[in-house]
Amino acid sequence: MFACRLPWWRSIATCKSWQSQHFLPWDSCQMLSVKGINTTVGQEQQVGMKEKQVSEDLEMHLARSETEALFKEQPESGNQYLEDTLLRSYLKTHLPPKVLEEVHQDLERFGNRLVTKIQPLSWECELNPPVFRQYNAWGQRVDDIYTCSAWRRMKEISAEEGLIAEAYERRYSNWSRLYQAVKLYLFSSSSGGFSCPLAMTDGAAKVIESLGIPDSLKNAFGRLTSRDPKKFWTSGQWMTERRGGSDVANGTETVARKQPDGTYCLYGFKWFTSAADSDMTLTLARIADAKGQCTQGSRGLSLFFLRVWDEEGKLNNIQVQRLKDKLGTRQMATAELWLQGARAELISAEGRGVAAISNMLNITRIHNVIGAVAAMRRMISLSRDYARKRVAFGKLLKDHPLHMQTIARMEVQVRGAFLLLMEIVRLLGLAETNLASEQEQLLLRLLVPVAKLYTGKQVSAVAVEAMESFGGQGYMEDTGLPVILRDALVLSIWEGTTNILSLDVLRCLAKSQGQVMAVFLSTVQKKLELASGTKELSPAVQQTREALGSLRQFMEAAGSEQALTMELAARDFSYSLARIYTG
Question: 414 pLDDT band (50/70/90 cuts)?
C-alpha cells in the first residue's frame, strides 16, 4: 500500500563508510568515485552491492515502521448504540420495561447496520456531491440535478428504518417521539447529510398533521410518513428569498395568483432551497388580489403546498438557476429556484402562513439539536479511541493527564447537551399525545430555541477541540474529520442564528407574561432538590444554585430596564438558561 522509496530518499540519501562507521552525504560518496579512488572492478561491484543492501534495509525499515504506525493509530468505532453508555442508561431509566425491550433490540440491530452498511454510503455521498446540468446536448433546458446512488439509497434506508414514520405511528404512545429522536441521533453522523432533508420532511408532516390532515393532503402525509421506499417522499422548505432568511415577514416577495380551479400559481425567486431534489415542499407567498396588490408584513403571508414535479416527471414550472457552493453539507443539493407559475395549494388560512409554519420550525430546530449532539458524540468517540492507540512521548495519549482532562471536559459538554435534547423530545412526545401539562408545554416552548442556539455554538467548539486531539491527522481531508467540522458549522446558522433565537427567547417570556420563567425556575429547583440527596453531586448542586440565584437577580433587575438593555443581554441570558438546565 505504501511505496518503499520515500520522497526524500532520492535527494538527501546517505551512504555508510564501512571503515569509519560515519555517514556521509550521498553527493560526497559520488565525488569519491569520480575523483578515482584506487579500487578494482570487483571491489567496486562489492561496494555497490553493499550500498544497495544498506539502502534497501533502511528503506524497508522506514516503510514498515510507517505502515505499522498508521494502521495502528486509525480511530475506529463499533456499534454506536452499544458503545453509548449514557444513551443506554437514559433509556433504561426512563422507558417502560416492555418498550425498552423492543427498542433495545431494534437499536442494537440498527447500530450494526450503521457500521456495516450506512457509514460507507455516507463517505460515498461526500465524495460524489450533486451535479447540476442546465441544458442537454441539443440545447434544450432540462435543469437536471444528479445525485449519487448512495444518496438515493439513504432515502430508501430512511423509509425502511421508519426515521419519520416512527414519530407518527405512535406505537409507543408518548415515547414514540423520543425513540425516533434516538434513531435520528444514531443516524445523523453517518447519514451523509441526509439528516437535513429528513428534518424538513418531519417538519412538513407535523404541519400537515396540525392542520388535521385535510383530504387534499392525505396522500402527501401518507408518503412523508411511509416505510415503503417506493412511496416515501422527502420535503423541502422554501422560505429564504433574496432579502434574507429569518425576516420572512419583510423578505418574502413571492406572489400567489389564484386560478379558476381554486389552485394558485406562484411567481418568485427562492434564494436558498435545501434538498432541492425533494418530492414536495412547503413555502410562503403573498396572495395577490384582483388588482394585483399584496398585503405586506407577516399578515400578508400564506402557506402553500406544492409538488416539485408534475405527473410526467417534469419540473412544476420551476427553473433551477444554480446549485449553491457551500462550505459544508456538500452532499445535499441546495439551489436557487425561479417559480414561474408553479402550481400550488393554499393550506393555511389566508394571511396565517407564519403561524402555520411555526410547527415546522419547532421540529427542524429540534433536528438541529439532534445533529449537533450527534456530531459532538461522534468526534469525542473517535478522539477517545485514538487516545487508546496513539503513542506520544513514550506513552499512550490516554496516559497523559492533560490530554484526558481535555477529553473529559468535552465529554461533560456533550452529556449535558444530550440530556437537554432528551428532555425536549420527552416533552414533545407528551404534547403530541395530549399528555403534557400547561407547565410542560410552556417549558417546551422555551427550551427549543434555548437548546438550538446553545448546541449550535457548542458543536463548533467541541468539533475544533476534538480535531486538535488528532494532531496533524485531524486536518487531513481523507480522515473524514474535516467533513464533520464543516457540516457542523451550519448548525448555528440554519433555522435561526444565535441572535435571532435569543430574541425569540425574549418573545417567549413576554408573550407568557413571565409564566415561562416561573415554570423554568420551579423545574430546576425540583431537580436540584432531587440531586441534593446525593453526596457526590453536592458541589455541582451548589454551583447550579448560585447560577440560579444570579439569574433571579438579573430577572428582578431587568423588570425595570429598557427594552434595549434586555436585547443586549438576550444572548448571555439564553446561554445562562441552557447552562443551568443542563447543569
Answer: very high
Cβ count within 10 A of residue 275: 26
The pLDDT tens digits for 54-91 are 566 555 555 555 555 555 588 988 999 999 999 999 99
* Model pLDDT, residue 250: 84
Q: What is the pLDDT of residue 296?
A: 92
**What DSSP character marks residue 117?**
I
Task: Write the single-letter amino acid at 97.
Answer: P
Which amino acid is located at 228 in the chain?
D
Please, which pLDDT band fits residue 191 given cuts at 50, 70 and 90? very high
- Measured CA to CA, the distance from residue 250 to residue 243 in angstroms comes to 8
Using CA atoms, how far apart are residues 36 and 15, in angstroms rounded to an integer? 18
Helix 515-531 to helix 438-468 angle (10° resolution) is 70
Give the start-to-end residue ranges of the domains of the chain: 509-582
User: Residue 115 region, left (φ>0) first, then alpha (ψ -120 to 50), else beta?
Assistant: alpha
Q: How far apart are CA 113 and CA 75, in angstroms?
A: 19
391 HSE (CA, 13 A, CB side): 7
d(CA 383, CA 377): 10
CA atoms lying within 13 Å on the CB side of residue 449: 23
Residues contacting 123, CB < 8 A, separation 6+: 192, 480
Which three cell numbers mark 273?
432551497
The pLDDT value given to residue 9? 32
List of residues 6+ apart from 215 with CB closer than 8 A: none
**Pairwise pLDDT comparison (35 vs 196), residue with the higher score:** 196
CA angle 156–160–165, rounded 5-degree value: 110
**What Cα–Cα distance (Å) separates residue 29 from each residue in 9, 10, 32, 516, 538?**
15, 14, 5, 83, 72
Q: How far apart are CA 332 and CA 324, in angstroms?
A: 10
Handedness of CA 388, 391, 393, 395 (dihedral sign): positive
**4, pLDDT greater than 70:** no
Rounded distance, CA 104 to CA 87, Å?
Answer: 11
> Using an 8 Å Cβ cutoff, are 407 and 383 in contact?
yes
pLDDT at position 583, please?
85
Q: And the C-alpha cell for 501?
A: 433565537
Predicted confidence (pLDDT) at residue 37 exceeds the cutoff of 80? no
Q: Which residues pair with 304 in a beta bridge?
A: 283, 346
Strand ranges, E, within 169-317: 235-238, 255-258, 264-273, 280-287, 301-307
Predicted confidence at residue 26, as pLDDT, reads: 40
* Residue-level pLDDT at 410: 97
How many whole angstroms separate alpha carbon 178 and alpha carbon 489?
25
Range 100-114 average pLDDT: 97
- Let me know if 123 is exposed, middle or buried by CB neighbors in 10 A (0-12, 13-18, 19+): middle
Alpha-carbon gap, residue 421 to 371, rounded angstroms: 10
3-class DSSP string for 28-72:
HHHHHHHCCCCCCHHHHHHHHHHHHHHHHHHHHHHHHHHHHHHHH
312: DSSP letter = T
